[in-house]
What does this fold into?
Amino acid sequence: MAISIKAKFKSSSERISQVPKDSLKDIAFIGRSNVGKSSLVNMLTGIKGLAKVSGTPGKTRLINHFLIDDSWYLVDLPGYGYARVSKATRGEFSKIITDYVLKCEKLHFLFVLVDSRLEPQKIDLNFIDLLGNNGVPFGIIFTKADKLSQAQLNRNIANYKRTLAESWEELPPMFISSSEKGRGRDEILAFIEECLAAE
Ligand SMILES: Nc1nc2c(ncn2[C@@H]2O[C@H](COP(=O)(O)OP(=O)(O)OP(=O)(O)O)[C@@H](O)[C@H]2O)c(=O)[nH]1
Ligand SMILES: [Mg+2]
It folds into this structure.
């Protein structure tokens, strides 16, 4: 049976000093611009248009908090790797992203979204290294699974695991999603529930 959740927009923050000041935990979504973060937030909550989706990369610029079941936050983050957005910043990842991911105490678990159609991308691997090296708990979601066959999907995921295994002893939890088809919703929500309960 599909899990049903209550969701409402809480706030958009330009910097981490502006995020909600309560003790509720954040479960956040990050990844390259256009990978499907906002679409996934809408798919998980079941509310189309809750997070703004666009065919043009760089749509989400702020840290967006959505209150779920009055008990935790689902957080839609800006993407990385989009030239026009990152030009103004010196590093590969903008300050808003590194501040949130490395310093925000609300962050409880982070999902890194990667496009299931692509070979492992340098920028995603660098980001994953950053998380691993800083002890940030994270999982990987392979997005847009509707765009390829199950056989291709299996191949790409096996390839991703091989690549990560070159640098990491332990692999993070992994999920497959399609926001078009609703694929992955129950698994991801069940994992989040466990994760929030686990402390
Ligand atoms: N076929 C398919 N298209 C998807 C899926 N998820 C997202 N898209 C499309 O991919 C594009 C980008 O989606 P967004 O959800 O806005 O991506 P984002 O990661 O939030 O992008 P930024 O906010 O710009 O970083 C849109 O055209 C979506 O319709 C999916 O599961 N399947
Ligand atoms: Mg977005």
